[in-house]
Amino acid sequence: MRDFDYIRPATIPDAVAAAAQPGSAYLAGGTNLLDLMKGGITSPERIVDITRLPELDRVEELPEGGLRIGALVRNADLAHDPSFAKAYPAVAEALLSGASAQLRNAATVGGNLLQRTRCSYFYDTASPCNRREPGSGCSALHGENRLHAVLGWSEACIATHPSDFCVPLVALDAVVEIEGKDGRRHVTLEEFHRLPGQTPQRETVLEPGDLIVAVRLPAEAASFAANARYLKVRERTSYAFAVVSAAAALTVEGGRIRAARLALGGVAAKPWRARAAEALLIGAPAEEASFLRAADAALAEATPSGDNAFKIELARRIVVRALTSALAGTPALMPALPASPFSNIPGARHDA
Amino acid sequence: MTVHIKSHGDASDGAFAEAVGGRLSRVDGPAKITGAARYAVEQQLDGLVHAVLVDSTIAAGRVRAIETARAEAAPGVLKVLTPDSIVGLRTASDWFGTPPPDKPYFPLARDITFSGQHVAAVVAETFEQAVAAAALIEISYDETPAIVDLNDAKAGDGIPVDAMTKEWGDAPAAFAAAPVRICAAYNTPREYQAPMEPHGLIARWEDDRLTVWEPSQWLDGMARTYAEWFSVPFENVRLVSPYIGGGFGSKALALSHGAVAAYAARMLGRPVKLVLTRPQTFTGYGGRAATRQTVTIGAAQDGLIQSIVHRGVNETSIDGMWVEPLGSVTSIMYATPNFSSRQNVVRVNSVVPGAMRAPGENPSAFGIECAIDELAYEVGIDPLEIRLRNYAEQDPHARKAWSTRQLREAFATGAERFGWAARTPKPRSMRDGNQLIGWGVAAGTYPVRRAHGEAIVRILADGSVEVESSSIDMGQGTYTILAQTAAETLGVPADSVVVKLGDSRFPRAGVTGGSRLAGVMTGAVYKAATSALDQLVGLAISDPRSPFHALQANTLVVANGRIASPRGDGPDVSIAELLSGIGLDRIEASGDTMPANSTAEDRYKNYTTISMALPHTEGDYSRHSWCAHFIEVRVDEDFGTVRVSRVVSALDSGRLYNPKLAESQWKGGIIMGIGQALLEEGIVDRRHGRIVNNNLADYLVPTNADIPDIEVISVGIPDPHSSALGGKGVGELAIVGVAPAIANAVFHATGKRIRDLPITLEKLI
Q1: At B17, phi and psi to the nearest 5?
Q2: Which of A110, A214, A248, B349 lies 20 to 30 Å (CA to CA) from residue A185?
Q3: Does A307 touch chain B (CB under 8 A)?
Q4: Which residues of B touch A239 (CB under 8 A)?
Q5: Mutation for testing the A interface, residue in B57, B641, B645, B760 having most A CBs under 10 Å
Q6: Distance separating alpha carbons of residues B647 and B628, to the nearest angstrom
Q7: How many A-B residue pairs are in contact by the CB < 8 A criterion?
Q8: A142 and B687 in contact by Cβ < 8 A?
Q9: In B, which residues are within 8 Å of A1 by CB distance?
Q10: Any chain B CB within 8 A of the CB of A213?
Q11: Of B379, B364, B385, B344, which is closest to residue B295 (Cα–Cα)?
Q12: Which element (helix H / strand E) includes A83?
């Protein structure tokens, strides 16, 4: 690790001013940043520690309905908040399916949005990588890319965004609250992450100094509480990133779908909102045939970026299963293995 | 040697827990749980400096130039080492003790034969300074085409290893004539030991004496290598390794990073710490070699095997030789009148592969135990029944009686506990919602490897007992079972025994590998303790100051730390009181398991090489441990994900010195086997031969959530031909057969036969 300056500002404006200088990085939970620094993948000259900033670790009900989640709220605290899990069960399920208990205790809401890809070549400093070194090339494109993107990728980058948390958030129209040099602004999570295009190093819409201060869920997000699930296919039951995942939320009246939300994880450089599939579902009968059509629509644009065509079929199947599970209803208790298709194994562990 | 084995068996608790065969908990447990146990690189030494390695990023070629000026100028840097700056080291002998070629040894490489080869090193005052400076080193290469793995078009068919050929009868002809014929190819990938504690060391020189704190499965073997590299007498090298954070075969040999650290320490006159990064643990030493096997079985319609033809290939490195014996289980598991097994090795641009839990037996069993399952379906016989029909009543290869083989009992007990009789034979015939359920069975075996060891047992003035040996405990329980052995032999409580291990100044021991240590060291401690007891009782009877002197007894009884006459009619004193009475501050005895006429040279070879190990087929018997695994899997029908939901394994390791610890090792092996079956694979980038998933986030091993409750059942009986106290090997046995049992269960669940490990989801959707 190289030497760096360490700054611990007392106020949000001080933090933004400090981080606006080139070579700066915010430090919150540090679960991703410190690994990247130790591995020489990123070498910030200035660390701006925001963990002591006031009021960023609160969860507040908004007067107009909905919820405001401070950027420093820990993943574990949010997932284990009973009223949160009751109103937004798919979000809680996603949080509990991510990382490990120890990481969830440290990782923050804002940091989760900003975690970097898990592409092996991004971590291998001997390999070209357009995200790490713009213009150097994409090693994954003709390399080992079994788990890489099937949607929204470019020749410049085929990496995926690894977050579980962001998948139900984007489905539920979450909004990111950002403090910058010019004050505060709100950006939908759907717009927050960028697709790689020719500039994969620009992963979000954040400008230098911009600080995520909160994530908002609109009032409508809680209306799906009775029929919302997050489902994750991973190679082992805990501490593994998604091969593919899906968040599905429905409201059903008289056997017909009145409202539908669907998003996919592990398939693209951003949490992937499947709006075309949602459009097909609204007004359709709540049955498997509708879900199959929705799955086809969700993956209509998908193409393999390498040795990963199986992910397209897998994504179709997880869409169907997630919608089927949502229709069956949110379980009264969190499943023993959150988001796992094996959560009903007798004797399954309760701490994934 | 035959000894009387007491008959208390596997008493589960109470006073019996302390005796051999009791379920005493790990005596090193509290130190490890509380953090008091000090591991090798946690030693605090004055003047310690830190070394960091810089590795090759190409797989084949030559280093053209190394730019070190910026690193040398960086803060805190004491020395930058390159291939040319390490001079004067000599090539060491291999672990067979083969005399080395008379040529220099270069632990940093100019000629590159694999990606990740150590090319340069930086030594600095702090670790952070060394890391920062290492990033400033620029290496340019002349790259040549590499053979990245076994499947590389340039790899070829490899080199025949004639010593691996095992043949009897006329296997090809019998196969051609057989009414039922199956033929299939089975592949296993590179797998890695992935110990929790990475490899590393602290090296310190005092004049020409070297002390190395390094996790080690073989102190005396590694000390020999360091001594030969640096041309100092063997006695001048001290290895210290009291605790080891997992080895699985990877910590038995001194490695090039150790030579770099020791060289730097001598050059700088300061102790040097060097620890491999996690990515470097994938190239700093070898994991399990990738293998390919073809198994053909010719059989009668009733499932009786008439011929097995087996061809195996494993990868090795460009300039090293690793043979993974792929015919080891194939040749002994089933009776067959005709047999042929041959093996090649293929050179690829990789670090030389190494030992990983049950080398040879593990991939060998994957081939034959899947193939016999395929035969079972071909002839329509239950997979358990076909194994019994072809049961080998003696070693089919060595043509000798088994010393003990409780495999039939393992099948019967495991099947009963698992409920195998309720299995519906047809694939895809059992399900639960979206999950297909499959039940699979497979057998495993591991030979009884035998070597020798020494121990000292001291009875101290306060009545406590000290045991010393340079053998090691990497979690398997050596501290505990040696305390039990000394306690039982001497008649003292186990908590009055202190076992000291992991220092090459102690009496010597051979390698802790091949599941041999427990059998060797309980034998040595038993002999030393018996000798100490004889001295104690002899003095008590004969010393004029002893309270027993007037008794004119022939013998005395020592129990629970007290000495009395057998009839209980005389004095009853503690060991401490007796020693104090006769004015002795200690009684000391050494014991070893070497033949009586052994020379000093024999002993040196025995402890520092594997050349003196006794063949498992020596004399009249063939000696092996055996096991049978019964495994249930659940496969998500849509996603192809496999999870193991139930394991029942019955195992024959002979007599268990401590059932609790044996069960723990068996379960560890089964867990590792689940990882091998479903998760583990070193993925190589085909362009530059680098291991892409060289970290514990991408190289997946099972988590707790992947592991169901595992039931292990001991079906062993004491085997007097295998060890002094009747035990056979424990540590490696249980992994053998797990992967084929899972593959067989996956076939039963899905109807898909997966012959390439690991069984990942895209192979099933």
Answers
A1: -55, -25
A2: A248
A3: no
A4: 703
A5: B641
A6: 11
A7: 101
A8: yes
A9: 128, 131-132
A10: no
A11: B364
A12: helix A82-87
Give the B window 675-694 contacts with A, CB below 8 Å.
678-679, 683, 685-687, 690, 692-693
Residue B550: band (very low, low, confident or very high) from pLDDT cuts 50, 70, 90: confident
* CA of B69 vs chain A CAs: smallest distance (Å): 18
Q: Does A239 sit within 8 Å of B703, measured CB to CB?
A: yes
Fold exhibited by the domain A224-328 = Enolase-like; domain 1 (3.30.390)
DSSP state string for B436-486: EEEEEEEEEEEE--B--BEEEEEEETTS-EEEE-S---SSS-HHHHHHHHH
Tell me whether A321 touches chain B (CB under 8 Å).
yes
Extract the tokens encoding B738: 């797990």
B5: pLDDT strictly greater than 50: no
| Residue of chain A nearest B674, judged by CA positions | A236
Contact assessment for residue A258 and residue A224, using Cβ atoms and an 8 Å cutoff:
no
pTM for the complete prediction?
A: 0.97
Exactly one of B324, B393, B732, B762 is catalytic; name it: B732
The full set of domain ranges for chain A reads 5-52, 224-328
CATH number of A5-52: 3.30.43.10, 3.40.50.1820, 1.10.1840.10, 3.40.50.300? 3.30.43.10
pLDDT tens by residue, B69-114: 999 999 999 999 999 999 999 999 999 999 999 999 999 999 999 9
Contact in structure between B316 and B346 (CB atoms under 8 Å)? yes
Whether residue A40 and residue B709 make contact (CB cut-off 8 A), yes or no, is: no
- Nearest by CB to B705, from A2, A142, A349: name it: A349
| Torsion over CA: B573, B577, B578, B582 (sign) | negative
Mean pLDDT of B583-589: 97
pLDDT tops 80 at residue A352? no
**Mutation to test the A interface, candidates B57, B136, B646, B685, most A Cβ within 10 Å:** B685
Digit-coded pLDDT (tens) for B131-179:
999 999 999 999 999 999 999 999 999 999 999 999 999 999 999 999 9
Q: What is the mean pLDDT of residues B423-448?
A: 97
Is B143 tagged catalytic?
no
Mean pLDDT of chain B: 95
Which pLDDT does position A350 carry in this prediction?
54
The answer to whether A123 contacts chain B (CB < 8 Å) is yes
Across the interface, whether the CB atoms of A310 and B762 are under 8 A apart is answered: yes
- Give the closest residue to B522 by CA, choosing from B663, B713, B356, B730: B730
Same fold, A5-52 and A224-328: no
Partner residue facing B709 (CB), from A234, A313, A347: A347
Q: Are B765 and A314 in contact (CB < 8 Å)?
A: yes
Query: Which domains occur in chain B, in start order?
Result: 40-145+193-282 (3.30.365.10), 291-449+617-763 (3.30.365.10), 451-608 (3.30.365.10)
* Residue B315, number of CB atoms within 10 A of its CB: 27
Query: Token pair of B386, please?
Result: 């076909």
Min Cα separation A228/chain B (Å): 19
Residue A336: its pLDDT value, please? 87
The CA distance from B135 to the nearest CA of chain A, in Å, is: 8
Pick B679's closest partner by Cβ from A236, A238, A337: A236
**Whether the predicted pLDDT of A132 surpasses 70:** yes
Residues B622, B651: Cα–Cα separation, whole Å: 17
Please choose, from the candidates A255, A259, A272, A262, the residue with its C-alpha nearest in 3D space to the C-alpha of residue A229: A262
- Token pair of B179, please? 């009414």
Global ipTM: 0.97
Residue where the block lists tokens 């939300």: A261
pLDDT at B16: 60
Question: pLDDT tens digit string along B743-760?
Answer: 999 999 999 999 999 999
